[in-house]
Amino acid sequence: MRALVLWMVIGLLAASCAKSRRAPTQVLEVDRPGHDEQKDAPLDRADASNAPMRPEPEQGQEPELDEELDPEPQVVPRGECDEAADFEPLIATEEETCYEFRAHELSDPSDTTEFIVLNGESYNQLYYTVPWPADTVATRIGMVLDNEEVLMHWWMFGLGAGAFPNGTVEHNATGSTMGQEAQVVGAWSVGGCNVEMPADIGLRLPDPDKSLMIQWHHLADSNQTDGSVIQVCTVPKASRTHTAGITLLGEESPGRRDGIPEGPYSVEGLCGNTTASPITIFAAMPHMYRIGSSAALEIMRPSAVETVLDVPFEFEQHAHYAIEPRVDVAPGEALRATCRYLNDTSNRVISGQSVYTEICINFVFSYPAGALDEAASPSLLGATNTCFDF
């Protein structure tokens, strides 16, 4: 019960604050024997379809289910994960060095046995030393998935010095990295595929004095095994014009204390450019669970709201979207990340880390690396490269 109880306590403490971020979650405990108003008119950046959007209520309010709304356009940038090549194992080019991180069962860096996924839902974390030299950036992040049916997501974190020893396997973890100086390096969710940076961009990676942790979210209907491999292809930082980073936008606690009511519902999070220079946005990857219906990313300009991403969402079809052409967020402007839901159950859906709860995260890719991160932005996930408040 360690993971379940600890996460519920954290959630309850956060919910009691004036700026509550998350209600108690329902990550299922798995026993492992033997192991201890009217919006401004948007400026569309891509061809809009005529597909109607689900009604969008005001944030935090019950929707008017019987109100007939006019269809709204969707702005759909080029999405990845639509070709077979997007799922193939990565092979290093002449300029790249690629590294592999294999899921294994025992806390031993030489262990090659497949990870045991127990019946139920759980978070499991594997730790590795950083294998690349200093001043290295990622060009591509991919995977060779073994038992895909039990995989809900994997997230790769860079952690501060003094993390777990290389090869450590932490079974049935809480799913939070609070207090570990964690930064999300890469992420995948069910249905997703490999991610490749544009030719002039490298993705920020932790230096060798840090540690790596890959967090696996598993859901299985019986005891099974998995030997999936995460791949990171790299080049020297000096070979790329821009160094980019991932920043998490959105709202960790959609529905707050009361949960998401039946019917359509939406939440949003604002993230401002508080620097003195423009921040360039070139890709995004929305993440929700089972009742997520669509996601949007907008720039709040002084005179208008510019829509750069507005896409339907399906839990089993997560995708990475390239924003082309790239867009700049000027100093003083803000990004608005919106998640929309359609709760077709008879119960309110609380926020949390289980697939039966909900969350609102948009992984936004931008440069300069870290410019969009907000140090004061609270995150119960523990990641420091977030911007949940403006």
Q: What is the strand tally?
A: 22
Terminus-to-terminus distance: 36 Å
* Total count of domains: 2
Q: Residue share in helices?
A: under 10%
What does this structure look like?
This protein is mainly β. Helices cover 4% and strands 38% of the residues. It has 2 domains: 20-28 and 39-75 and 243-387, Jelly Rolls (Sandwich), CATH 2.60.120; 84-240, Copper type II, ascorbate-dependent monooxygenase, N-terminal domain (Jelly Rolls, Sandwich), CATH 2.60.120. It has 1 helix and 22 strands. The strands form 4 sheets. Strands 1, 2, 5, 9, 10, 13, 14, 16, 19, 21 and 22 form an 11-stranded mixed sheet that branches. Strand 17 (292-300) and strand 18 form a beta hairpin.
Topology:
Layout: H1 2-15, E1 78-79, E2 97-102, E3 115-117, E4 120-129, E5 136-144, E6 151-159, E7 169-170, E8 183-189, E9 195-196, E10 201-204, E11 211-220, E12 224-226, E13 229-236, E14 242-251, E15 263-272, E16 279-287, E17 292-300, E18 305-312, E19 321-329, E20 334-343, E21 360-367, E22 386-387
Parallel strand pairs: 10-14, 14-22
Antiparallel strand pairs: 1-19, 2-13, 3-12, 4-7, 4-11, 5-9, 5-10, 5-13, 6-8, 6-11, 14-21, 15-20, 16-19, 16-21, 17-18, 17-20
